[in-house]
Amino acid sequence: MKNTFVALLLLGSISSCNILFPPDSQGELMGVRSKKKQFYPEKPHGMVEIPGGSFIMGSSDEDLVDAQNDPTKTVTVRSFYMDDTEISNAEYRAFVEWVKDSIVRTQLAVAAVEEAGYDFPTDKELDQDGILQYFPKFENEEEKTGAYEEYLDEYSFGSNVLDNWLSTYQAPDSVFHYHLPLNKDVDIIWDRDDYPDPLYAMIIEDSIYLPEEEWFNGEPTTNKKIFKYRFSYFDAVSAIKNPDTPRSKFWEYEVVEVYPDTTVWIKDFKYSYNEPVHNNYFWHKAYADYPVVGITWAQATAFAHWRTKMRNDYLRNRKKKDIVPPFRLPTEVEWEYAARGGLESAIYPWGGPYLVDDRGEFLANFKPKRGDYAADCVLYTAEVYSFPPNDYGLYNMSGNVAEWTETPYYDEAYEFAYFVNPKLVNSESKRRVVRGGSWKDVSYFLKVATRDYEYADSARSYIGFRTVRDFVGNTDIR
User: One digit per residue, pLDDT tens: the chain, 478 residues?
Assistant: First the structure.
């Protein structure tokens, strides 16, 4: 019996050698081989690479307002990617439209399941123009074959796919789950004259649109309150501190209403006529390339999560194994490092100390002189590619709109932050750092070292955001 055990152990060792020591390794340790000989970093669309390095963080000039919250300190930052512009209305609208589409299709899918009597419709029924064309794209269990499907069936993981799916569905006034197998091959019909059947009409009219007496300018108006995005994230810091606690305890779930608060154009300014921008700024194509505003910190975070999901879903559907790291808001230190554009002790992204170029033209969108908003040729926000970029290729790091960062705000943050990749963490903090100043701010807030904050649940007509993504692999350090 002992000899049999030794023989089996030896056989296992020989088998594993074929994996760890391929035939051409000559018995030398070669490491686990990948099908790809070399990894090439992917530069995300619309982003620039910010090479890692060290810089002097904090104000290099006099503390005129006596804030005493940004003393100079040398820190080192690893490489990362950053959006070359602020997130535009067109880009954020893609997020809103995706959420809207998913909510409508989810309601139509549930209605189709109920109409089919909780059973799979026939191909003939699915080809009709009624509500059944929005039936979820499940695989028919009778067609499933293979060991994995048999395993699921044996342990009742997939015995009732329709009931299992409906158990994850929640009412329209709550949250919709977007991992469902929705049928996106069929267009959603918005024209009342083309509704396929009364059940479809009921779902659109009663669940999606506001009552007719609340429509704006007589046009059907959707209920923006139901545009909610549900996402989760893993609290790795807490999990590391509590290694004996199951991982499942550290998943956090968030639900965010994604539609911007367009009323900020009126609420932020009393006794000011801003109705035209309130009515048109977010949705009209004339403002497509302008920075999105009226966004809370939570909405900016939700957008970053959605952007990650969209990219990784695309890669998974194409059987790509190298999914990308998450998009996120920049830390305060990353933002300042990127804003400086590699210039040491610069006051502004272009260096300074002047706010105009050699032709006398302003280098940013802000409130110049004594409140002459039009002096820089822009009254409110400007298009995201306006004004010259800094040496990293980043536009409007000063002015246009201030930008949310990931970092909670503390006056004394620079005193206790670490020297390498500083990051402060406090999910309970109500204040978040905003940087860069905006179209309504004086030049002091345009300085790359000026610190400011806003409450995370606030939305403003002068605050937007841009996202970053970690760099995977090695890069040149500057």
Answer: 555 544 444 444 444 445 555 667 777 777 776 666 666 778 899 999 999 999 988 887 766 665 676 778 889 999 999 999 999 999 999 999 999 998 898 888 888 888 887 777 777 777 778 888 888 876 654 555 678 666 656 665 444 556 665 665 554 444 444 456 888 889 999 888 899 889 999 988 888 888 888 887 777 888 888 899 988 888 888 889 999 898 888 888 888 999 999 999 999 998 899 999 999 999 999 999 999 999 999 999 999 999 999 999 888 888 777 788 999 999 999 999 999 999 988 899 999 788 998 888 899 999 988 778 888 888 899 999 999 999 999 999 999 999 999 999 988 777 777 788 888 877 778 999 999 999 999 999 999 999 999 999 999 999 999 999 999 876 656 6
| Residue 214: inside a domain | yes
For 320, other C-beta atoms within 10 Å of its C-beta total: 11
Long-range contacts at 58-67 (CB < 8 A, ≥ 24 apart): 58/414, 58/449, 59/447, 59/449, 59/450, 60/345, 60/346, 60/347, 60/449, 61/347, 61/353, 61/447, 64/444, 65/444, 67/411, 67/451
Query: Are 273 and 140 within one domain?
Result: yes
Tallying the residues shown for the chain, one arrives at 478
Q: Which domain holds residue 197?
A: 90-307
Instruction: Tell whether 299 and 355 lie within a shared domain.
Output: no
In a 13 Å sphere around the CA of 404, the CA atoms on its Cβ side amount to 33
In total, how many domains does the chain have? 2
Same domain, 142 and 177: yes
Q: Does any domain span residue 221?
A: yes
Euclidean distance between the first and the last CA atom of the chain, given in angstroms as a whole number: 64
Residue 104: CB atoms within 10 A of its CB come to 21
Residues 364 and 425 in one domain: yes
Q: Within this chain, do residues 166 and 277 fall inside the same structural domain, yes or no?
A: yes
DSSP labels, 254-293: EEEE-S--TTHHHHTSTT---HHHHHHTTTSGGGTTSBP-
Boundary (domain end) residue, out of 307, 335, 357:
307
Calpha distance 267→381 (Å, rounded): 17
- What is the CATH classification number for the domain harbouring 447? 3.90.1580.10
Are 289 and 413 within one domain? no
